[in-house]
Specification:
Elements lengths: L5 H4 L12 H12 L8 E5 L6 H12 L2 E6 H6 L3 H10 L8 E6 L9 H14 L4 E5 L14 E5 L5 H14 L8 H9 L3 H12 L6 H5 L10 H10 L3 H9 L5 H15 L3 H24 L5 H14 L13 H7 L3 H17 L3 H18 L1 H10 L4 H9 L2
Parallel strand pairs: 1-4, 1-5, 2-3, 3-4
The structure holds adenosine-5'-diphosphate and magnesium ion.
The site of adenosine-5'-diphosphate has 19 residues, from helix 3 and helix 9.
């Protein structure tokens, strides 16, 4: 890509540049400045994604001219000894004589048997550390973090308000000289649901198509944050509101092929009336046929019909009341569980990492969601990008399926 993503380009370079959560950011700054006086030798920043936890740490480091050592949580957790990874860093001065901050990002995101050990070793390091240690996590109530909280001051980041998100979006829009229909910023901010990263990325994606109209924003779908398959099925089988169901299907992580299987498996559990069931399966079969044709002719835009037929199949069926256990598509389940999904994500991230001079982890966090959203709103641009990254067929197919 010719230029860096906007979440990088507009990365705040001092604490004043962080929108919202002023008190918390101010406290973070003090904590680092007066580290020697602190009772607790670490802080734990908690809050949802894209509210600026990581960005605040970078901003504070830049403002105070501190060196920042970011340690990847999985790196810590997989290490035989946490001390090897952060212990030394925590106790040595930076070579340049500048102060040093140690950031352990997303401590609650990793999993595995070693986790508990990992946390207790981190606590050991905190106790002896000569430099400020900052940790971040999504959810402070995670059991894993319980003991950590005795040793780290918890700073809670609140979700950003729509008005706060709008301020930054306007700034970016001006600086990029975007051509926006009135109301676009409002809509993008609304859809982000307090997630600044999402808002900035959405605006960037929309802007690739030239003038941005309000109706373009609709294509992004609300970020009710990705629903799992059980939640989507629940909506499909219980709601009577077509738009609500479609929204749920679009916002889910489940691709249509998979959802089709889930619906096929669960229909007879929910629909007892024989005629109704036959009709539902007929509609489902039609959706499947459509899907096969689209694949053959590569008319991906028409996937939306498959989605509609799928939704209709369920909506029109006469369903039983009450709660039913949702079953996994039995025979085929194994197929879907393959590791292919993870492999594909990894190889796309690796391609970005190579081309954009960043780490694969960072690429997965920043560039991959960007590419996914771009595929959604502008497949032509997305496929050009795929070509320049030299992505393989499997990767491109996966992207198409996630539309
Ligand atoms: N409060 C904020 N003020 C300014 N920019 C922000 C803010 N929150 C997020 N951003 C932007 O969004 C991107 C992602 O934020 P990040 O700090 O990584 O979120 P978190 O760590 O809370 O998930 C940052 O690169 C930054 O550009
Ligand atoms: Mg973060």
């Amino acid at each position: 890509m010719s230029s860096e993503p906007w979440v990088r380009k507009y990365f705040p370079n001092n604490s004043k540049g962080i929108v919202g959560n002023k008190k918390v950011v101010q406290r973070l700054l003090e904590f680092v400045q007066d580290y020697k006086k602190q009772k607790k030798k670490a802080v734990l920043l908690v809050g949802g994604t894209g509210v600026g936890k990581t960005a605040s740490v970078y901003a504070v480091a830049a403002e105070l001219n501190y060196e920042l050592l970011e340690i990847n949580s999985s790196q810590v957790m997989n290490a035989d000894s946490v001390k090897n990874v952060i212990g030394n860093a925590a106790n040595t001065m930076s070579l340049t004589g500048r102060g040093k901050i140690i950031l352990i990002d997303d401590v609650d995101a990793f999993s595995g048997r070693k986790d508990r050990g990992g946390i207790s070793e981190i606590i050991d390091v905190i106790k002896k550390s000569g430099n400020p240690i900052i940790l971040t996590a999504l959810n402070q109530w995670n059991q894993k973090l319980r003991t950590l909280k005795n040793h780290a001051e918890v700073l809670q980041f609140r979700k950003l308000m729509k008005s706060q998100i709008k301020v930054l979006l306007k700034l970016i829009a001006d600086s990029e000289e975007l051509c926006l229909e009135q109301g676009v910023i409002e809509l993008v901010a609304e859809k982000s649901r307090g997630d600044m990263r999402a808002a900035i990325t959405d605006l960037e994606v929309l802007a690739t198509g030239g003038k941005v109209l309000q109706q373009d924003v609709e294509t992004l779908g609300y970020r009710e944050k990705t629903l799992g398959v059980f939640e989507v099925l629940d909506k499909m089988f219980h709601s009577q509101d077509y738009h609500e169901i479609v929204k749920a299907v679009r916002n889910s992580d489940v691709n249509l092929d998979e959802l089709l299987l889930w619906v096929a498996e669960n229909l007879p559990r929910r629909v007892k009336d024989r005629d109704s069931l036959i009709k539902a399966y007929e509609t489902l079969a039609e959706a499947d046929l459509f899907r096969a044709r689209i694949r053959k002719r590569q008319h991906w835009r028409f996937l939306v019909y498959v989605q509609d037929l799928l939704v209709l199949a369920v909506m029109l069926a006469e369903k039983n009341r009450g709660w039913f256990k949702t079953e996994r598509p039995s025979k085929i389940a194994k197929l879907w569980k393959t590791k292919s999904e993870r492999n594909v994500r990894a190889s796309i991230s690796a391609a970005f990492a190579e081309n954009c001079h960043t780490s694969a982890r960072q690429a997965e966090k920043v560039y991959l969601p960007f590419l996914k959203t771009l595929s959604l709103v502008n497949w032509k641009k997305a496929s050009e990008l795929c070509a320049s990254l030299k992505l393989g067929e499997k990767e491109v197919e996966w992207l198409k399926n996630s539309i």
